[in-house]
Amino acid sequence: MDTCTDDNIFAIAVFLLPRDLYNIALVCKHFGQKHNATSQKMPTKRRQRRQGSWPWSMMEEASRRRVSAAKNSKHNPWRDSQLISIRGKESWMAVHQRLYSLQCSLVFSRIIGSAINHVDGDITHIRGRKKETVGFSVAIGQKVMKAGRHYAEFTVTNGGKIYLGIIRPIHDWPKKKIKHADFWAHCRRQIDPGYQGSVHQHYHYDERNTLEKGDVIRLLLDLTRGTLTVYKNGESLGTEVRSGLAGYYCWSVTMNNHGSNRPSVRIGYALNKKEG
Q1: Which of 37, 128, 149, 177 is the S-S candidate for 55 at Cβ 3.0 to 4.6 Å?
Q2: β-pair partners for 130
């Protein structure tokens, strides 16, 4: 270890996943213990030049550097996202994990409205909070689908009236609230290819059967054919959209809350893609 500098360690850490850094911090005191400081503020360049001058562990610093590089990269579409900003007393490894999820998983990267929130900081998992009083609340996936076939799997973790589907990529919506009239007016004003077609949002909901805990809904968006096909617990429910579906879309969820019931759902990639 005496012949291996901190710079060598950080160069190797670039190739490790967040969970790998966490495991290394657990098993090796040299990498996992905090340095003698009480501030959680970003270290200055002068302090960074001094070996081991950051106020957290070496693996925390490795995660901070990965997040900082992502924030400074013009090729990273999430460089301005609050999801890769540190919150309160959380660790840099937690922020690094969210960055990794944004890059490699399906997540809910933007929530508009006050009736939905993430579950315990998990950006793949959302639940209803309260009844929306103005407009509607919507959770939007980070992936922008522009062409070809795309699958997503939604696992219901608490039953209720949950609407699963697609919406235009409105991650930069400027307000905390969203009204139906404002949304449609926004879509009509757009002239770029992402808004061609007449279907600006579409949600699946079976009025005959409220979704229950454990239900798995799988959606297949085919932008070549212009269709959206729905599967529930492995069985096809048919193709719901057959025309007017064109342009760019993101996966999205909205829901209705009744009394103390707080429906919740988790998003992920569909592992078995034999349908369709």
Answers
A1: 37
A2: none
Question: Residue 178 is encoded by which pair of tokens?
Answer: 């969203």
pLDDT band at 255 (very low <50, low <70, confident <90, very high): confident
CB 273 within 8 A of CB 219: no
Q: Which range has highest mean pLDDT (77-91, 222-236, 246-260)?
A: 222-236
Contact 154, 164 (CB under 8 A): yes
Distances (CA, A) of 246 to 150, 182, 192, 226, 231: 14, 21, 12, 6, 21
- Say if residues 118 and 108 touch (Cβ distance below 8 Å): yes
Is the whole-model pTM more than 0.85?
Answer: no
Alpha helices by DSSP H, the chain: 6-13, 18-27, 29-32, 45-49, 58-72, 92-104, 180-189
- Give me 38's structure tokens: 């009480």
Location of structure tokens 């999801």: 83
Question: Maximum CA pair distance of the chain?
Answer: 68
CA distance 121 to 111: 13
